[in-house]
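As a warm-up, study this chain.
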Amino acid sequence: MGSDISYSDLSGRDLETDYTAELTNESAETVELTLTPNPTAPTSYGQVVLVADAETYAPLEYTFFDQRGRAVKRITFSEFAEAGDLNVPTRLEVENLLREGERTVVVTSDYEFGVRIPEACFTERALERGC
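Now compare it with the structure written out below.
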């Protein structure tokens, strides 16, 4: 929809189903996972590196690499809100690493947790209208 962010960036569900994760670094503050796409995964990325908070496992940063190993996109998560046992980022910054200075920032300021959203809201047309 005219930005550096995609719907899959927002949902993250394809990371769970299309990739195999390996713990590649761990410290007192952060945990790093390197995700490699499964052979039949419909993705253009050759690898994704995730960094999460070591205590809460809240996402801090995703870096996407192309098939040649070049970093092409970075998503940074910050300004967390508590939702039960979860820390949910309310600020998301997507940086296009191939075009210097090109980025998209999404800040969520009016949110509710635990609200059921109708499936009909999850189409491009409904999102453009503001379902």
